[in-house]
Amino acid sequence: MSTTILSKVEQIKSNSDYLAGKIATQLKNSNSFFEEDEIQLLKFHGTYQQFNRDTATDLKRKGLEKEFSFMIRTRIPGGVLNYQQYIDLDNLSSEFSDSSLRITTRQTFQFHGVLKKNLKRTISNISKMLITTYGACGDVVRNVTTIAAPIKDVIHEQLRKDALMISSKFIPSSTSYGQIWINGDKYEYKNKEKNEPIYGKSYLPRKFKIGITIPEDNSVDVLTNDIAIFLIHKNNKVLGYNIAVGGGLGMTHNKPETFPYLAKPILFCDKSNLNIVLEEIIKIQRDYGDRTNRKHARLKYLVAEKGTSWFKKKIEKQTNLIFKNPTEINNLKIIDHLGWHEQGDGKWYLGIFIPSGRIKDNKNIKIKSGLREIINNFKPSVILSTDQNIFLGDILEKDKDLIEKILEKNLIIKKITKVDRWFLACPALPTCGLALAEAERVRDELVDKINKTLLKHNLIDEKISIRITGCPNGCARPYAGDIGIVGRTPNHYALYTGGDFEGSRLSSKILDKISYQNLVKALEQIFILFKKQRNKDESFGNFCYRIGKDLQFKKIKEVLNDSVQ
Questions:
Q1: pLDDT tens across 146-196, in order?
Q2: In degrees, to the nearest 5, what angle opens at C-alpha 261 toward C-alphas 256 and 264?
Q3: Measured in whole angstroms, how far is the alpha carbon of residue 244 from the centre of its chain?
Q4: 20 to 30 A Cα–Cα from 359, which one of 8, 214, 368, 543?
């Protein structure tokens, strides 16, 4: 008799009748919230229950209920939309959310501030746009990412086709979603039976992410995915795919058994076997992943403990195929696609910078209004990127100046520094229930302070990627860039450096805890070292990696004394 004790979430999934639970019943009651079991199941349907953490303490003191709301996340493979879908999503955000659309670091949209009474109507309307929220969250394959730039050539077209194919293959099969949110309409689903031929009734042990790219453009940070796919090509022909496994950035403070990890290469497969290989990897995680401890449930722990050889042999045994070793990839690169670019067919695409991916209007800058005017008038294709920006494709040469004028009128075009360009932030407070400190709300202030510091030391033109998250789960990929700032406690952060800009090396922790007020001062000490001791053409991340964390800590400690640890 087995003595394995499954985690509570595993029990909820197993007993949910393929993700149905009591969602439909609780959706109809007058409460502004769902019960705990349904909160877990709702994630599979693309929504998280949240509450306003700014007001929660005061409301509790007054004996009042928290201000509950819901974040809804869409599933948009490769971030690709048509113009009408964008307009419809924009309308929906104005009607039911906080009036913003937020581009995520997984190339899709989130709605924030949706009330429970509007939840079904919002998700139902999204489905009418031929977009879904199903599998955007939860313990399944989530949104599949790839290069956002709408370049019209054989290789980039194949990347987009592959992303769509992978997403379609691994979307959950259960009809619970349609029955709850779309009144039983089954057009989205592969079968009419409540079963999951790939996932099984308990689905995967944890969330599962897949990204696909080419070595020449790692703008998607592909190695941070559970499965990282490199399309290998030559002379405009697809040769096959390098497959790497085990990427994942989430960890827990003070628990060294949890850690960020980059995907490790295991094999090369041809185009005809890509689906087979991906399915077997997912089944291995399904069957061997840890279902007793969710902090140890990601694929990365299986890879770290079993090794890549075990993985490859397992896949070969299950498929009865023999696979080659991965093709050697020397150096990854990242291409900046912002601005105007010819897309390969005589038309143009435009990459537009969106701070924190937040599409909204404020007093001065009218991002939401400006984008809507352009998309409504010129009907471009719309693509979201993993660095939270937006791309408009299929633009005629004659329309470029008109579009520029709309951008200028709404103050969307502005000169941005390299720090601003490559700075990512997760939403954090006040909506995320996991946030320990601020992220998005301090982004602009932090960018300004770092810019001034770099300018002071004549380093303003250095290309440095900086990512800030409110907790250690790593949504904005803080461990994969040059500098990572990770929420530790309220107003305090852990500081990481020594990753590389190209996303092929993880950073190391320099400080375990530093206040927000001292954060830029600490970074300044590392910038000073960089200015004085860098080698010719050495990047900031490579410099920090070379000199090591001890020297950086010592330099910071000299200035901030007991303010850091």
A1: 999 999 999 999 999 999 999 999 999 999 999 999 976 443 444 445 689
A2: 140
A3: 18
A4: 214
Q: What is the β-pairing status of strands 466-469 and 423-425?
A: parallel
- The DSSP bridge pattern shows strands 227-234 and 423-425 to be unpaired
Q: Measured between alpha carbons, how far is 57 from 81 in angstroms, rounded to an integer?
A: 40
Q: Is 443 helix (H, G, I), strand (E, B) or coil?
A: helix
- What token pair was written down for 498? 């020594």
Residue 231 lies in a domain: no
CA 300 – CA 223 distance, rounded (Å): 11
Write out the two tokens for 39: 């909160």
Counting DSSP H helices and E strands in the chain, the numbers are 18, 19
Yes or no: say if 316 and 330 are a contact pair by the CB < 8 Å rule.
Answer: no
Helix (H) or strand (E) holding 207: none
- Using the 3D structure, point to which of 396, 416, 436 is the last residue of a domain: 416
Whole-number Å distance between alpha carbons of 215 and 233: 10
pTM of the complete model: 0.96
**Looking at the structure, do residues 364 and 509 belong to the same domain, yes or no?**
no
Number of domains making up the chain: 3
Rounded Cα distance, 78 and 224, in Å: 16
Q: pLDDT per residue over 285-323, tens digit each?
A: 999 999 999 999 999 999 999 999 999 999 999 999 999
- Asked if residue 278 is part of any domain, the answer here is no
Query: What does the alpha-carbon distance between residue 467 and residue 486 come to, in Å, rounded to a whole number?
Result: 8
Tokens 């730039």 label which residue?
Answer: 149
Q: Which residues pair with 248 in a beta bridge?
A: 261
The answer to whether 380 touches 392, Cβ cutoff 8 Å, is yes
Lowest mean pLDDT among 9-18, 119-128, 175-184, 195-204: 175-184
CA dihedral 551, 554, 556, 562 (to 10 degrees): 160
Give the number of other CB atoms < 10 A from CB of residue 62: 8
What is the spatial distance between Cα 350 and Cα 337, in angstroms, rounded to a whole number? 8
User: Please, which residues have CB within 8 angstroms of residue 545's CB and are 6 or more apart in sequence?
Assistant: 498, 499, 500, 505, 508
- Alpha-carbon distance 147 to 360, whole Å? 24
